[in-house]
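Re: [ENG-882] Designed sequences occasionally contain unexpected residues at chain ends

Forwarding the minimal case from QA. Structure tokens:
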């Protein structure tokens, strides 16, 4: 085992991260840059610092996970979401709530807002809460300014309608930026921030977290969705085994799951972890 592997073996469990999901070469370089900025020259010294300074974990975490996102990421999933989940929800006519968990710089939450705006009027109110553990990502979300690569899956007419070019970047319309509430939230250590009709938890917990922690997150998400509520995952993600009592794949099959009603199976425990 190399020094770096030994470092990961001790540092990852406290962050709830799985070693298998990490891109070793990138993160080794990033961790070494962090160590250099702290005047440290070996992983043992950094481990010692992490042990005595719990706040350093927050600086390490974003170096180990990816915080990149984009609008309409895996566009087919958003097409399905709009047609099979958002349209019927809007047609019900009651106020609705959505949560983007692990929202990075807000692209996913803003995509949801745009899709809602594009549904036929009248539409009930949809409140959208977007959370992430990384404060720098949340600050970028509030700024609403994106590079061209963040827009590469956005349909042309939508890009025209919702974004303005600004010095080589794209500024999202201010009313859209203001329509989403951003908040710091740690999926690993905090209960869900409410009850929602739709939860998006994509390319975060079910990619990076250790298997035991994934089960806890699935249970926690199940407790925040009423029967029929929708959970959206990343295109390549799967729910952990043993969660089929809570979630059933929505039709057409893809990355969307529906919360099973209490008549099918009992709810999981809802107590905060
Ligand atoms: C790859 S981005 C995914 C962004 C978006 N959901 C998407 O699919 O494009 C992963 C995000 O998960 C966040 N994250 C990692 N650990 C987290 C935790 N414990 N609680 C909340 N968010 C976390 C990261 O900060 C990062 O912004």
């Amino acid at each position: 085992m190399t020094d770096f592997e030994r470092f990961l073996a001790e540092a990852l469990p406290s962050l709830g991260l799985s070693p298998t999901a990490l891109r070793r070469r990138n993160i080794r370089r990033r961790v070494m840059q962090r160590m250099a900025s702290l005047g440290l020259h070996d992983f043992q010294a950094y481990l010692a610092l992490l042990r005595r300074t719990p706040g350093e974990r927050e600086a390490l975490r974003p170096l180990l996970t990816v915080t990149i996102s984009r609008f309409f990421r895996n566009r087919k999933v958003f097409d399905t979401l709009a047609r099979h989940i958002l349209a019927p929800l809007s047609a019900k006519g009651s106020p609705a709530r959505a949560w983007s968990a692990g929202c990075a710089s807000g692209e996913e939450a803003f995509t949801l807002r745009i899709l809602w705006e594009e549904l036929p009027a009248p539409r009930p109110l949809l409140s959208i809460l977007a959370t992430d553990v990384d404060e720098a990502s949340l600050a970028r979300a509030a700024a609403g300014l994106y590079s061209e690569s963040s827009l590469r899956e956005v349909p042309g007419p939508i890009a025209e309608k919702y974004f303005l070019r600004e010095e080589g970047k794209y500024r999202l319309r201010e009313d859209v930026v203001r329509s989403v509430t951003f908040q710091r939230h740690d999926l690993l250590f905090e209960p869900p921030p409410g009850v929602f009709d739709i939860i998006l938890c994509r390319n975060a917990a079910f990619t990076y977290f250790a298997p035991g922690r994934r089960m806890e997150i699935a249970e926690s998400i199940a407790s925040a969705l009423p029967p029929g509520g929708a959970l959206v995952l990343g295109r390549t993600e799967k729910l952990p085994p043993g969660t089929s009592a809570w979630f059933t794949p929505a039709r057409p099959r893809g990355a969307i799951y529906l919360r099973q009603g209490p008549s099918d199976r009992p709810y999981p425990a809802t107590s905060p972890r």
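QA comment: On inspection the terminal residues look reasonable. The radius of gyration is 20 Å. Proposing we downgrade this to a documentation issue.
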